Amino acid sequence: MAELDLFQWWAVSIAGGSIFLTLVSIYLYADSRTRRERPTSKVRGPTRIMTDFIFVWVLLGLLIFYIVSINIGSATVFAAGNIFVEALLVAYLLKNRKRKSEET
Amino acid sequence: MRQLKNPIFAILVACAVVAGVYSELKQAIIILSMIALSVVLGFYNEYKAEKIVENLRQNVAIKAVVTRDGKLRQIDSRNLVPGDIVSIYVGDIAPADIRVVKCKDLQADEATFTGESFPVEKTSESLSLERPMPQQLTNYLFMGTVVVHGSGQGVVVSTGKNTQLGAISKSLVRSHPETEFQRGIRKYGNMLMTLTFALSVGIFALNAIVGHQLIDSLLFSLAVAVGLVPELMPAIVTISLAQGASKMAKVKVVVKRLVSIEDFGNMDVLCTDKTGTLTEGKISLNDCRSLGEKEDERILPYSLLCNSAAVGDAIVGNPMDMAIWEYAIKNGKEQSIKPYTKIDEIPFDYQRRIMSVVVKDNGGHLLISKGAPESVFARCTQADLSGKINPIETVQEAINDKFFNLSKLGYRILAVASRQVEEKSSYSLDDEKDLTLLGFLIFIDPPKKDAHEAMSRLKDMGVEVKILTGDNELVAKTICDELKVPVKKIVCGSDLVQMSWTEMKKAVEEITIFARITPEQKLDIIRALKENGHVVGFGGDGVNDAPALYEADVGISVDTGVDVAKEAADIVLLEKDLLVMAAGINEGRKIFGNTIKYILMGTSSNFGNMFSAAAASVFLPFLPMLPMQILFMNLLYDVANMTLPTDNVDEEYVKSPKRWDIGFVRKYTLFFGPFSSLYDFLTYGIMLFVFGAATNPALFQSGWFVESFWTEVLVIFVIRTRRIPFFTSRPGKWLIVLTLACVAFGTILPFTILGSYLGFTALPLEYWALLVLMVATYLLLVDAGKVFFYKICKFQ
After folding, report:
1. By residue range, what is the domain housing residue B438?
2. What is the pLDDT of residues B352-396, one digit of tens each?
3. Could you say which of B557, B576, B595 is where a domain stops?
4. Could you tell me which residues come within 8 angstroms of residue B4 by beta carbon, excluding any fewer than 6 positions away?
5. For an interface test with B, which of A29, A96, A100, A103 has the most B Cβ atoms less than 10 Å from its Cβ?
6. How far off is chain B from A55, nearest CA to CA, in Å?
């Protein structure tokens, strides 16, 4: 029972941390838009917002994966999931790097 | 001693005392050892920094020739003591108050001291004066005055603050205004203190509420407080600045006040004179031009007679008078003054802007005046055009045109006039009237060859240069045009007088050249620019520049400047050159960049770790990390950061001035801090539910210590750049070496005797494999976070 309580505490903490980070991201994003808003600037469509928030989706995906894999208690699942996420992040960073060089 | 005054030191001592009295003696010993280590590290770094700065200051120190033990030697003038016998030569600045005991034609320029521009003749004779004023003591050389003629020897009577100049200088010895960097650090400190206080009180209260031991809770909350505060920050900032100063010295920029380096790098407006920056700073006489077609042979000898330069083995005096002599010598005309005998002199002053002499020639007494054309014109009633005397009103327009055209060509002009005067024993300012204008002296200070390149470089670096000159606007404009320096607007000092403060603040933004301005106006311009939110640098080397050098965020002088200017300056250039300045600014920006890295590290990963420690302490049945473990990690983390000042800085970072933005630091902390907290929570999960550490506190603490330390230290490679770490931005080699060495040490620690003494235990092999994967994901996620923060949200 005590073990279960601990897990709940833990899950709440890590979920709380992730949600906090997500909220901070939304706040920063909104703040940056307000800061840079010009009368002529175009309103960003939902697709663009989805892409801008890729990092947040990855974060929330990771949260679910971590809670599930640790609940199972399997180091193998945990390791495999990490490798998968790393590959995703590397692809994202490389794509981003490419886009940057195109812009310049 | 400064190390011991640090509030963190008090917290650490409190931890040690609480641990010693109420908990384990072992903890107290370890905490005390860490205090000792922190103090030694801090002291060593600051000592090293001070040595560097002291060595740099030696480069710009004034030297004195002194006879000690019968031997003549050159020493730093600061080491003079009363009783020393000092030898003085032409061009020397008196290094102390000296009673002259031997002299030959000794004359000193006491303008720095009394405002008197005419040299004062010195004597070795005794004087019988009752309650003399310092300026009456002609057998004294006062510190800071310049020997313009002759040589001598004297006994040092008083030095430093005890001299007459020292007494005057007390009005100048005011604390420098707080720099932008200091303001930033103060705000950052306040932010950190508030966070630390709130978090440690909260942790203590929560731990007590959930039933943890009160002493353990107190120790833990104190340790978290220590963990949050980057206690080595003062030492790291100081060593960063000192190492930067050392690098800047290699590009001929000597830093006198370390905190000014950051502002030097971040200044966005540079106010400077044009002499030596846009021009070569070497004035030469180009021509003596009469008003008519025919050459007037009198102009050169008259200007040699009406001249304050001292001519001996060397020519010493103001640059224009020296240039007249150099021209005469070069053309073999120095003997042209032989038929004249000097009778009297009415010295130059800044109000009249002319000087006059009375000489005796075959025809009687002749008064000759030389000075700023406008001032001379105002005292003339006639003009000599090829031997024909005309009333000035009839030719004034033609004369003005000539003056205007010469100024437009970039020449600096003085006018020469004369008149026969009745013979009398002395003459006064009232005699400077009814003069006959003879012609002009045309001087040239050629534009500097690399000035255009320097100006372009500064512009590219985001530094706007404003020219503050005593010259007329036409000369300044012509020089700028020749150098293709874009000039937005030119304004004269007389126009500035008419402006209200609000108009002035608006105007300073639009003006490139401020011509014919007074020292007080320089001060106003700097104040207006500062109020407009600029970081202002001011370059000056004259006596009158000292107040402006103090007022500017960064006072910049040159090694050849007068002592009082060098004293007031934060930075001294060994060469008056804008390119030298640009190189210095570049270094300043690198130092700022590395300091900011440390601050961002401290407020993100460090804060995140301590936050997760606080959260874990509430739901875990034991402390997630022992206080001594937190303190040890903190110490190791600081050691790893020691080489941050040597790190490389990305090229784009130094391209524009950066400002201290506490709002940015807050947002950065808010965003990047939770990343490390998340991974700490993840480690808790692995330790508790994969490795069963719920009943093994030592295993849990070891696992978290290693993960926490790895993430906290390795994240520097991600945070230090906005580019892709290692691939497009290479860290400094010492940063790599020391960081990896610390990571290696932290990794093997749980397996060592010291580790077991600290309460750690060996970790299973499987954990290490997971740790590598987890930390890799963490670093990649932070890098992705960078894309969101910098690229999508565009925070700068």
Report:
1. 285-442
2. 778 899 999 877 899 999 998 988 999 999 999 888 899 999 999
3. B576
4. B39
5. A96
6. 6
